[in-house]
User: Which sequence fits this backbone?
């Protein structure tokens, strides 16, 4: 039987890359993108695949259990790749309720729908939950997050993702629902909403706006190119062991301030400005509340068991990313008007 794969959050940053990869690589499969198009969902991200005969878009809320069940039956869904979420830590600090609703209750609604729809035959079925390394907390004393690191979420966002992970494992343990979970480090690349560090700063450098560095810029993140994450999801979806967890990361740690200076160099060069001209835009601002110091993923299980490795060196990926945002100013202009302005003014009071 042909596969019918429901991808939630497919209009978002990572989801759109996953939808593109699956639509192109599996023309015999039906790919259903279920997304309710929050501020972060953007169908412009999928213009190049929307006419593929195997691609379907459905505007729906993952929290709507009845509708999710109906969609599963209508498309005879055999697999779910669940990415839909509220994803920005700063927004979770301002409004934690929507994070609990979407990330915990939304995941529960999908799990229950899958359990009910597949109850008579789970053979060849899979519920793949896409999670984050932030559930492990903050590495204050060195080391790496492995698949067995105890959960220690510290922000409302990571607490809600941890809650969703627990529900996924509980459904596997209690109802034998076939599940797999991956926890990935920070992604970067085209189509990321410009509330996150890299696209926000590229856009601000271009427009000579202040660059709001939280605290002293000493926090460390482990960056992975988004297409490499999508490839990892493909590998895990097809070859991962049911019930298992896989960490995804590129062994690519950067202190924020070093990354910001590297971005400034690339943007200035591509815009024909003198080297380092935009460093004057760096503005140290009040730190994020409860700001996790360091994330670093050990992804050796994924490499050793399933043969996945990142394909891009960071410098190459970052240059590719900067070029994409500079070449796609209309994409940015469209989403940085309207509500974004309100968000920006509330968030950054220089
Ligand atoms: P994003 O915010 O760019 O996209 C989220 C998508 O989910 C949007 O298209 C939005 O419209 C949709 N959505 C939100 N609420 C919904 C609902 N109730 N019903 C249906 N759709 C809804 O997020 P992203 O950065 O692409 O992250 C995708 C997933 O990957 C999330 O689960 C996130 O926790 C996880 N993740 C992200 C990163 C990262 O660096 N961005 C790293 C690791 C894991
Ligand atoms: O680790 C995976 C996580 O990475 C994902 O689960 C989240 O969905 C994703 O948003 C990301 O979380 P971060 O909080 O690490 O990403 P963000 O881009 O918001 O911030 C990266 C770092 O930059 C962080 O240390 C905070 C800092 N920062 C961020 C912004 C937006 C600033 O200094 N200034 C800023 O304006």
Assistant:
């Amino acid at each position: 039987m042909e596969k019918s794969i429901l991808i939630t959050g497919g209009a978002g940053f990572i989801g759109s890359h996953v939808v593109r990869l699956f639509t192109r690589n599996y023309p015999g499969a039906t790919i259903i993108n279920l997304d309710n198009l929050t501020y972060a969902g953007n169908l412009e991200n999928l213009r190049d695949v929307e006419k593929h005969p195997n691609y379907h878009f459905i505007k729906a809320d993952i929290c709507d259990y009845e509708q999710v069940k109906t969609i599963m039956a209508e498309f005879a869904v055999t697999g779910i790749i669940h990415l839909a979420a509220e994803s920005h830590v700063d927004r979770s600090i301002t409004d934690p309720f929507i994070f609990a609703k979407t990330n915990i209750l939304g995941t529960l609604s999908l799990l229950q729908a899958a359990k009910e729809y597949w109850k008579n035959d789970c053979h060849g079925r899979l519920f793949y939950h896409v999670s984050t390394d932030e559930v492990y907390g903050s590495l204050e004393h060195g080391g790496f997050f492995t698949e067995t690191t105890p959960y220690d979420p510290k922000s409302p966002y990571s607490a809600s993702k941890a809650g969703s992970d627990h529900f996924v494992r509980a459904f596997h343990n209690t109802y034998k629902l076939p599940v797999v979970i991956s926890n990935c480090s920070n992604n970067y690349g085209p189509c990321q909403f410009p509330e996150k560090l890299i696209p926000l700063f590229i856009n601000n450098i271009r427009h000579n706006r202040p660059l709001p560095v939280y605290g002293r810029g000493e926090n460390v993140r482990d960056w992975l190119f988004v297409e490499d994450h999508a490839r990892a999801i493909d590998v895990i979806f097809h070859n991962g062991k049911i019930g298992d967890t896989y960490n995804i990361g590129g062994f690519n740690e950067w202190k924020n301030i070093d990354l910001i200076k590297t971005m400034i160099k690339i943007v200035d060069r591509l815009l024909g400005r003198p080297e380092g001209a935009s460093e004057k835009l760096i503005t140290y601002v009040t730190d994020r509340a409860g700001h996790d110091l360091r994330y670093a993923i050990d992804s050796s299980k994924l490499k050793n068991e399933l043969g996945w490795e990142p394909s891009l060196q960071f410098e190459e990926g970052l240059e590719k990313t900067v070029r994409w945002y500079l070449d796609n100013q209309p994409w940015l202009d469209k989403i940085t008007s309207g509500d974004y302005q309100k968000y920006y003014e509330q968030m950054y009071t220089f």
In short: Residues 8-9, 11-15, 35-38, 40-41, 61-63, 83-85, 87, 102, 106, 130, 132, 161, 184, 186-187, 193 surround nicotinamide-adenine-dinucleotide (ligand 1) (CB under 6 Å). The domain at 4-188+223-251+293-312 is CATH 3.40.50.720 (Rossmann fold). The longest strand covers residues 126-132. The CA atoms of residues 31 and 161 lie 25 Å apart.
